[in-house]
Amino acid sequence: MGEIIKAQTKKIEELTLYLIDQNERILRQDEKYKAQDKLIQQLSEQMKRKP
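^ thats the sequence. predicted structure below, dont judge the formating
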């Protein structure tokens, strides 16, 4: 029984670390998205101003 608990605890730790990593990746992607959106808005405004 103790071995099962150890295995389960290890798997929970692995999955927790995986979720933390995935969350960090999502946050980085969100920052990239925001930067790209800002750039698109700036370029759009520049195009509107040109005759």
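The radius of gyration is 22 Å.
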